[in-house]
Design brief:
By secondary structure, the protein is an alpha+beta fold. About 35% of the residues lie in helices and about 15% in strands.
Length: about 260
C-alpha cells in the first residue's frame, strides 16, 4: 500500500459521524481521508483497510486506498474548532480513499440496476466482514463511470470493539441477519456462485497479506494482546474462521432474499 503526505487541506465532508477530510497529497492526488483522531478511532481505519482490500481482491470496485501522513498544522486551515480538533489529533498515519470526481450516491430507486454477479458478491462479502452499513438508508455505494464503487467500511469487523486474546474467534460462526436489509439483495440472484467465488479468492495467504498492511500504530495495546504480531495474527485468524463459516450466513442471505422476491 502506498504512503502519501497531505500537503493541503481542501474541505470537510460533513455527511456521517466521522467527518472525513478531502486533502491534496504530495503525489498531486486528492484523497478522502478517514481520521484516526475522529470519535470512531483507529479501529474504524482498520476496518476500512481490511474490508476494502479484501473486497478489491474479490473483484469488487473500491477506490485506491493509501496511507496518508498528516501534519497537525493542517488543522490551522479549518476555521471550525469542532472540525479542527480531530484534524490536529490525527497527526501521523491515516487512511485515504482516492477521490472520485463526479461520482454520485447510488440510489436503489433510480433506473441504474447493478448486475447480479456484483450484487451477489457484495451481499455475501458484507456478511463475511459483518458490514452492517449497506442499507437503502445509507448504501455507502457510489456510481462512477457506470460502475458501483464501495466506500466507507468503518462499521465492518465490529467484533474488534472490545475483543481480546481470550475471545479472538468470538462471532466467527454467527449468521448475519442484516443481510435482509442489504440494499442490493433484490438483485443478488447468484448467491451460491458468489460464495464459491469468494471461497476461491479469499485464501489464507491473501488474508495474511492484507492484515500485514495494518500499521503497527493502529494496533491498540489496550486490547490485551502480547504484541502487534499476536494482534495482527488474531485478525487473520478471525477472518479465516469467518470465511470457513460461510455456509451459515449464505443460508441466511438466501432465506432473506426468498422472502423479498
Amino acid at each position: 500500500m502506498r504512503t502519501v503526505r497531505a500537503v493541503r487541506y481542501v474541505l470537510p465532508f460533513r455527511q456521517g459521524g466521522s467527518v472525513p477530510a478531502l486533502v491534496e497529497a504530495d503525489d498531486l492526488g486528492l484523497y478522502v481521508v478517514k481520521l484516526r483522531g475522529a470519535g470512531q478511532g483507529h479501529k474504524t481505519l482498520i476496518a476500512e483497510l481490511v474490508a476494502g482490500e479484501l473486497a478489491r481482491a474479490a473483484g469488487l470496485h473500491v477506490p485506491e486506498l493509501v496511507l496518508v501522513e498528516l501534519d497537525a498544522k493542517l488543522s490551522e486551515s479549518e476555521p471550525d474548532p469542532e472540525l479542527a480538533r480531530p484534524l490536529e489529533a490525527s497527526a501521523g498515519l491515516n487512511l485515504g480513499l482516492d477521490y472520485l470526481p463526479g461520482s454520485i450516491t447510488f440510489d436503489p430507486a433510480a433506473r441504474f440496476a447493478p448486475d447480479a454477479t456484483t450484487a451477489s458478491r457484495l451481499v455475501v462479502f458484507d456478511a463475511l466482514v459483518t458490514n452492517v452499513d449497506r442499507t437503502a438508508r445509507n448504501a455507502n455505494l457510489l456510481q462512477w463511470h457506470r460502475r458501483l464503487w464501495l466506500i466507507d467500511h468503518g462499521a465492518a469487523l465490529y467484533f474488534h470493539h472490545g475483543w481480546g486474546p481470550a475471545d479472538r474467534l468470538e462471532g466467527t460462526r454467527d449468521v448475519f441477519v442484516e443481510s435482509a436489509s442489504h440494499v442490493l439483495l433484490r438483485w443478488a440472484s447468484e448467491l451460491d456462485e458468489a460464495a464459491a467465488h469468494l471461497t476461491r479468492v479469499l485464501t489464507e495467504a491473501l488474508v495474511e497479506r492484507v492484515v500485514a498492511e495494518i500499521p503497527d500504530a493502529w494496533l491498540d495495546p489496550g486490547d490485551g494482546f502480547t504484541d502487534v504480531a499476536e494482534h495482527r495474527a488474531a485478525y487473520a485468524a478471525w477472518l479465516q474462521a469467518r470465511a470457513q463459516a460461510m455456509p451459515a450466513y449464505l443460508a441466511e442471505a438466501k432465506e432473506a432474499r426468498a422472502r423479498l422476491v
